[in-house]
Amino acid sequence: MSAVTTHVLDAATGTPAAGVVVVLERSGDDGWDQVAAGTTDADGRCRTLGPETGAGMPPGTYRLTFATGDWFAAAGRDTFYPYVVVAFTLAADRAHHHVPLLLSPFAYSTYRGS
């Protein structure tokens, strides 16, 4: 079983992106099912994505949706991306999956972290 975490950095200012709402979903037979939701902390991290029981999550296809438009609007900044959606495969052989997001108003990048 696995766990998922994320870290959002504002690449335009070089600071953590605190207060970004993040939703984790798993692909199922009838579409996407929400697994967890959270908000990034003062360090831009969301450490609580996944089952609260600590049982972990089964392998499969997941996605993280970051509410970037709301976050930029709250800061009085324009952005091209109202949401950033990152889909990925959660493998059975890894206990931890870290999916960071480097964010700016008109670009973003992500990678498989450790």
Description of the structure:
By secondary structure, the chain is mainly beta. The protein has a single domain, classed as Sandwich (Immunoglobulin-like), CATH 2.60.40.180. The protein contains 1 helix and 10 strands, in the order ββββββαββββ. It has one helix at 68-74, and strands at 3-10, 15-16, 21-28, 31-39, 45-49, 60-66, 84-90, 96-98, 101-104, 107-110. Strands 1, 2, 5, 8, 9 and 10 form a 6-stranded mixed sheet that branches. Strand 9 (101-104) and strand 10 form a beta hairpin. The longest helix is centred in the middle third of the chain and has 7 residues, at 68-74. The chain is globular and about 40 Å long. The model has no long low-confidence stretch (mean pLDDT 90).
- Number of strand segments: 10
Low-confidence stretches: none
Examine the coordinates and then state which fold CATH places here, giving the name of the CATH topology.
Immunoglobulin-like
Number of domains: 1
CATH architecture: Sandwich
What is the first-to-last residue Cα distance?
A: 16 Å
Apparent shape? globular
Q: CATH-wise, what's the superfamily?
A: Transthyretin/hydroxyisourate hydrolase domain
Instruction: Work out the helicity level.
Output: under 10%
**Structural class, from helix and strand content?**
mainly beta
* Percent of residues in β-strands: over 45%
Largest sheet properties: 6 strands, mixed
- CATH class placement: Mainly Beta
Computed over alpha carbons, the radius of gyration is 14 Å
Please trace the helix and strand order, writing H or E for each element: EEEEEEHEEEE
- Individual helix count: 1
The overall pLDDT, averaged over residues, is 90
